[in-house]
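step: validate -> pass
step: tokenize input -> pass
step: predict -> running
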Amino acid sequence: MGGAPAGFGLLQEGVAPRRFAAVPFLVFAAPFIIMRNTLRGVQIERRRFEFVMLATVIAGSGALMSGTFFLMTLRAAGVLA
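step: predict -> pass
step: emit ->
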């Protein structure tokens, strides 16, 4: 675990158990990673507004879905009533 920022490259590093362990982390971190990369692309590559808006919608939808999944899991486990 170096000082490099989290990214989807975690799925291509290390042995199979390490890759498998990265999946739950990436499920919840994906919206942040998408927005971070998009905003960096705006600054560096001068990406168009439409691309940034589409990435924002995709990241927002992913965040809502992962939050919903987390709450449904807590409810199924009996932690939430």
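step: describe -> The first helix runs from residue 16 to 45.
step: cleanup -> pass
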